[in-house]
C-alpha cells in the first residue's frame, strides 16, 4: 500500500462520525450493519451518514452489500490490519523494545474471549 492510500484511510477516520461509524461496524463483524441502523445508533441524519459511509468505502475501510433497498456495511478487517501494520512497521527503527508496549496494549483486544477466561 502506498502513502496515498494510507493517507486516504487515515483521512476517512479523521472525523468523529466516520470514526464512530467505523468502530460500530467493526463491532458487528462478520455480519455488518445496515446504513439506516448505523445512522440511527449514532443519531446522525441518514443522508449525512450516507456520505460518511461512502468516504469510508472509498478508502477501502468498509464494503457495501446492497440487497434490495438495504445497504449493509462490513468492515474490511484486512485493510484495517494493513493500515495499522503500515503505521508501526518501521516505528522501532530496528529497536523492537520501542514497539513492544504498543503491541502489548493492543494484544488483549485481539485475544479470543475463551482464552481471556483461562
Mean pLDDT: 87
Name the helicity range.
Answer: 55-70%
**Proportion of residues in extended strands:** 5-15%
Provide the CATH superfamily of the domain at 3-78. Winged helix-like DNA-binding domain superfamily/Winged helix DNA-binding domain
Please report the first level of CATH classification, the CATH class of the domain at 3-78. Answer: Mainly Alpha
Q: Uncertain segments of ≥5 residues (pLDDT<50)?
A: none
CATH topology (level 3) name of the domain at 3-78: Arc Repressor Mutant, subunit A
Helix-strand topology string: HHEHHEEHHH
Q: Report how far the terminal alpha carbons are from each other.
A: 38 Å
How many separate helices? 7
Q: Got a strand count? A: 3
GO molecular function: DNA binding; DNA-binding transcription factor activity
Domain HTH arsR-type: 1-95
Protein name: Metalloregulator ArsR/SmtB family transcription factor
Keywords: DNA-binding, Transcription, Transcription regulation
Set down the secondary structure blueprint:
Blueprint lengths: L2 H11 L2 H12 L5 E2 H8 L3 H13 L3 E6 L2 E6 L1 H12 L11 H11 L2 H5 L1
Antiparallel strand pairs: 1-3, 2-3
Helix pairs in contact: 2-4, 3-4
